[in-house]
Amino acid sequence: MKTPKISEAVVRRLPVYLRFLSELKANNVLTVSSQDLGLKLDLNPAQIRKDLAHFGEFGRKGIGYDVSYLIEKIRSILKIDRVINVALVGAGNLGRALSNYNAYLKDNMKIVAIFDAHSGKVGEVINNLSVQSMEELNATVNQRSIRIGIITVPASEAQVVADRFVDAGIEAILNFAPVIIKVPQGIRIHHADFTTDLLSLAYYIDDAEEQV
Amino acid sequence: MKTPKISEAVVRRLPVYLRFLSELKANNVLTVSSQDLGLKLDLNPAQIRKDLAHFGEFGRKGIGYDVSYLIEKIRSILKIDRVINVALVGAGNLGRALSNYNAYLKDNMKIVAIFDAHSGKVGEVINNLSVQSMEELNATVNQRSIRIGIITVPASEAQVVADRFVDAGIEAILNFAPVIIKVPQGIRIHHADFTTDLLSLAYYIDDAEEQV
Q1: Which residue does chain A place closest to B19, by CA atoms?
Q2: Is the overall model pTM greater than 0.90, yes or no?
Q3: How do residues B9-21 score in pLDDT, each as one tens digit?
Q4: Strands, DSSP E only, in B21-180?
Q5: In a domain, B37, yes or no
Q6: Would you say A62 is a known binding-site residue?
């Protein structure tokens, strides 16, 4: 496990930069200034220059960043310029739903295996993947060089699944169970939280008719 | 619809501030400086002071922000200090999965109605909610004062659902369908994207064994 050189907050902003840069590229925009990026993302330009300076000196004063070059650089930094195989444990509603997104996962990142601890689920076919038993986890992670694990089991089972992922050699985990999970140092865990999206939406609803 | 006074990017950062502040409060921390917030969120303190200054002068030089007061203030700004009813359209895997999160949705925000355009789904009970037909959408939104809509239908049906939500008087939409949706000005739409989480996780995987 390499030591991360940039902070988690910056890493989390990179896909956001990437999405906006990809939009620019799709619109044939060749260069972008830190001012323009700042306006779009409402970060001050100094913050953006600082974020991007972690990776070398991309920008050119008075011209800005080359959009295509910056996209390639961020893809390389995020390591999404290579194949990354993902496993998912929990063939319930959320697991099935996420595996549907496989077709939309760009950048060579794919869910290639689905596991479930309940024998009734094993053998079921979900989006062309046959649900495997947890006994097959270690061997499959090894054979398929799976690097990232997604947890979509109930909260009560999430820690056990995380332990199994760690044991199998998974390096990073995306946890959808609404519970805090502990992993050893060196293993990365992110908690997916759609409630944050809902909370920020509430800001935009109308005040007027709420006054009761 | 009121005119939003603060930018989308700031609104999106508020729930992140809120989560960290809630952790601090749970640990009996009474005050926090913009420096500490900055370190945790890897934003520069000036950015944080600027974000929070949108809502008045909370901070006191040398003492920092009162954690409880800041939490209440952000809750009030985000309007999550009141009841907000949410409707969901699409009783498929993702819709079922999200309605499971109801128990974890804090701050009085609840999914109170589920709809589906397919008659086979109507009447099914999901987490104590009986799936309703789309014909009942307008009346239910009205009766239950539903303000936010969640879309969990396939991409091909998402625009139609958004149009129905707008027609029913929904003010904000959280779209999980992997497709860009158009809504009239004054209606807020956020696109949920779990792929961003996955992309930022890729940064943390080990380089060494990838060199082939």
Answers
A1: A196
A2: no
A3: 788 788 888 888 8
A4: 31-32, 65-66, 84-89, 109-116, 125-126, 129-130, 132-133, 146-151, 172-175
A5: yes
A6: no
